[in-house]
Amino acid sequence: AKGSVVTTPINSEDEAYDAPVSIGTPAQPFNLDFDTGSSDLWVFSSLTPSNERNGQNIYTASRSSTAKQLSGESWKISYGDGSSSSGLVYSDVVTIGGLTAAGQAVEAASRVSQSFTSESATDGLVGLAFSSINTVSPDQQTTFFDTVKPSLASPVFTADLKHQAPGTYNFGFIDKSAFTGSITYTPVDNSQGFWGFTSTGFQVGNNDFQQESITGIADTGTTLLLLPDDVVNAYYSSVNNAQNDQSAGGFTVPCDTSLPDFSFGVGNNGAMITIPGSLMNLGPSGSGNSCFGGLQSSGTIGTNIFGDVALKAAFVVFDSGSQGQPQLGWASK
Ligand SMILES: CC1CCN(C(=N)N)CC1
Ligand SMILES: CC1CCN(C(=N)N)CC1
After folding, report:
1. pLDDT averaged over the chain?
2. Which of 24, 32, 147, 245 matches a 20 to 30 Å C-alpha distance to 212?
3. What is the DSSP string of 164-177?
4. 64/287: higher pLDDT
């Protein structure tokens, strides 16, 4: 089996990307944030207090003839940005891009934090990291990808995110028309439950390539590219009037400045993914006439994060083991 679904930026800063998902019988429609940095599929629901909702679609299990509550099971998750949600668990039919997962764990929110409430465009998340970090307790559940994997032509999914335009998540196949050149694969370390890999280094504009092992995760659920301070300082020291503005929350640049490209190395064949300078400006910072940089410090997170700013420049293959061990494939487009 194969699946293909269109994913769309939720706002003019490409802060996150939603895709349509159907749950239940008859189908209940949702717009969910596909997140390769977490492993819970959760939705706003009839259990979510009305004062925590803001127009989101809600899942009502009692209206689905195929819904079954997983008795005694619950979930609770918190994200890198301090947001969180929790609730009860059902199994139900979930369809994404023509691909149906029967008996998928659907995590119904009985509470959500403020940043979810205020994000009216997003009805919840589809976690696409490894099932080893799914939060359902006492019986951990599988992600949508793991649930449908046995039916897939190949145990892979791909992410093709775009700047201010619809992109695509495909399941079970690689669309050769979606990228240029060849795909460079690199091993994944999934010991922490993420799509972890090590980049071989970086390049600012047309300067020399800086060889430096940068270990991080490929994360569609994070907006920014979050890298070590030495990399971030090397980039912004090449930009006139860039400044690390704590009131803006990080590095800002003059909005009218053309920015250098930023490239990062993948694999052991010298391949690089190049983020055009234009994608390194995320728009007004909210402080002065400065604009917020797409590259920021990974600081104290504990991992580097190749988020949407990086992924937008690539066609990315999340391969859970078509050749044995999990691997990430990177191609330009
Ligand atoms: C390491 C963190 C990365 C951001 N997260 C995420 N996309 N769900 C949370 C985990
Ligand atoms: C990975 C998730 C981080 C938290 N999010 C949020 N606050 N709206 C959504 C994505």
Report:
1. 98
2. 245
3. TEEEEEEESS--GG
4. 64
Burial 57-93, CB ≥16 within 10 A → b, else e: bbbebeebeebeebeebebebebbeebebbbbbbbbb
Ligand 1 within 6 A of 222 CB?
Answer: yes
Of residues 4 and 289, more confidently modeled: 4
What's the predicted TM-score (pTM) here? 0.98
283 C-alpha to ligand 2 centroid (Å)? 19
| Rounded distance from Cα 301 to ligand 1 centre (Å) | 9
Q: What is the pLDDT of residues 163-209, one digit of tens each?
A: 999 999 999 999 999 999 999 999 999 999 999 999 999 999 999 99
Q: Does the CB atom of residue 210 touch ligand 1 within 6 A?
A: no
Tokens of 54: 């803001």
Please identify which residue in the block is written with the tokens 């071989």. Answer: 200
pLDDT, tens digit, 9 for 90 and up, residues 65-124: 999 999 999 999 999 899 999 999 999 999 999 999 999 999 999 999 999 999 999 999
> Which atom of ligand 1 is closest in space to residue 303's alpha carbon?
1
Quick one: how many helices (H) and strands (E) in the chain?
4, 24
* Statement: residue 289 has pLDDT above 90: no
User: 3-class SS at 62?
Assistant: helix
The best mutation among 34, 41, 79 to test binding of ligand 1, ranked by most ligand atoms within 8 Å of the C-beta, falls on 79
Signed CA dihedral, 246, 248, 249, 250: sign only: negative
Choose the residue to mutate in 130, 197, 305, 311 for probing ligand 1, maximizing ligand atoms within 8 Å of C-beta.
305
